Structures are given as C-alpha cells and as structure tokens.
Amino acid sequence: MSEDLHTLKDHYELAIIGCGPAGLSAALNAKIRNRDFVLLGSEFCSPKLSKAPQVDNWLGFPEIGGEELRQRFLDHVKEKDIPITPFKVTNIYPGPPYTLMGKEKSFEADTIIIATGVSAGKLLPGEAELLGRGVGYCATCDGPLYKDKKVAIISYNQEGEDEANYMANICSKVYYIPYYSEILKLDPRVEIKKSKAKKITGDQKVEQLDLGEEQLIVDGVFILRDTLPAEQLVSGLEMEEAAIKVNHKLETSMPGLYAAGDCTGQPYQLIKAAGEGGTAALQAVKYLDSLKSADPHEVVSIH
Fold first, then answer.
1. If both were cysteines, with which of 3, 115, 121, 294 could 18 make a disulfide (CB 3.0 to 4.6 Å apart)?
2. What would the pLDDT profile of 84-122 be if each residue is shown by its tens digit?
C-alpha cells in the first residue's frame, strides 16, 4: 500500500503527516471529499496500537485486540485506494503554500494536518536553543556544511546508521550514540558511544556534547528520532504544555495548518485521535474552499 517517493508531485492541496488513527481518519475524509492530498507515514503505522493487547472503548468493537483494530484501519484506507508514502518530513517552511522538506526532495501543500503522535523523549537541554546553529535532524541534508569537521549523531533507530556512514565520508570524525540495541551496518570509521546524551552546549553555535562521563568536542549534533518534535518541525508554532495548541476546529496558530491526535495533548485516546483527524480534514477542506473563493490579491487568514 506504500507509494514510491518518485510518484510524489510538486504540489498538493493537502498534506497529512502521520499514519496513526488521526492521520488515517483525516485521509479517509479527504478522499471522500475528492481532494488532492498525500498521506505521509512510516513503514509501520501506529506501533503503539499494535502493542495494545485489548481495546475496550472503540465503539462497536468491544474487547478488540490492538493489532486487529490497526489492521482494520489499514484495510479501510487500502479499500479506498489511499496510498501511504514513506516520506519523513524534516522541516516545514511557512506558507501557504507550505514547503515540506525531506532528505531527498521537497514539495508544497496549501494546507497541512500534523498527526505525528507524541515524540519519543523530551528535547535535550540546549537542543532548541542551538537548532540551526549546529543542531539538526537530517545529517544527509546538511552534510556538506560539515566537511572536515566533527559531528555526533544520536539515533533512536537503525536508519541513523546510513546517515552516520554518509557523514563518515565527509567529516573528520563521526561519533554515533545509539538509543537502540542492535547495530547492523556501521562504517568502522564511526566511533560508537554507549553513553546517553545529557545536554548540548555552545555559545553562538554547537561546541560540545555532554555524555556525562565524557565531553565530546563537536561542530554539529544530529538527533534522529522516530517522530520529530512538533515545535521543531515548524518554526513559530504555538505550543501549550508540550503539545500543539489548537482550538475546537483543530486550527493551530498558523493559517492553513491543523493538528490532530496525541500531538495536540491529552487525553491520549484512540477515539479522540480518530475524531480529531476527521474534524481536521473537514476544516482543511473548508479552508481550501476559502482559498479558491478569496480575492487573489488578499491574504487569507482564518484567525
């Protein structure tokens, strides 16, 4: 059901980021309303749901297993011919149209629904302050900037090994800090550090990574999480208690940008996520219609 990255167009009406219950629900509603959209997700959608032994509060399906319910979600979107594109967004530039950046390419969307769930782990001390000044989330994107320099890569999954191997051909030194157990294919030039990162320090730019018992002198630190923190994905996005701040229409602080599911805060419930996803899609469709009916010389704002 995955769609090849090469089929990505340069522009969509709507981009949905995340293929959990919120993202799938949003995609379903966008499809029913015949909108030009793309659903972006990972190869394994909603791992948290798959691990739930039993779900007791999904209406109409008492005591259903989490994996069975997850499979029903995926079967539903497959039946509606909705592909899931394995595109990891590393940055979003404000719009509209918004520009969604990835490792290999970028594209535009008039409106976006963020349904990325909850990021694994809190931000490291110094991470937000030094973002763009040595802290990044895509080593292969920024690699040329670190020619003959020292970098550290903190990775929560094995995909980070490819990025470390790539950087080994560019940098004078690459440190690799894995937050997972089994390392498969790391270049021997990359030095593995088993300690956990404590903080990133530097005056105007990254200078050091604190591993507790050891201090690494580096020019850059790349943090490769499964889910990018929402506040780091979109610069200037208003947050509230570590969640994306939305109103009852699921509008964020930025026009044409919506959020749904766990990324909007508690309660972390399947039924809430799916409901918000559907609502966000309906509101995004209304927003798209307002763009079409507006004077082309006017700046459209829904706030």
1. 115
2. 999 989 899 998 899 999 887 999 999 999 999 886 567
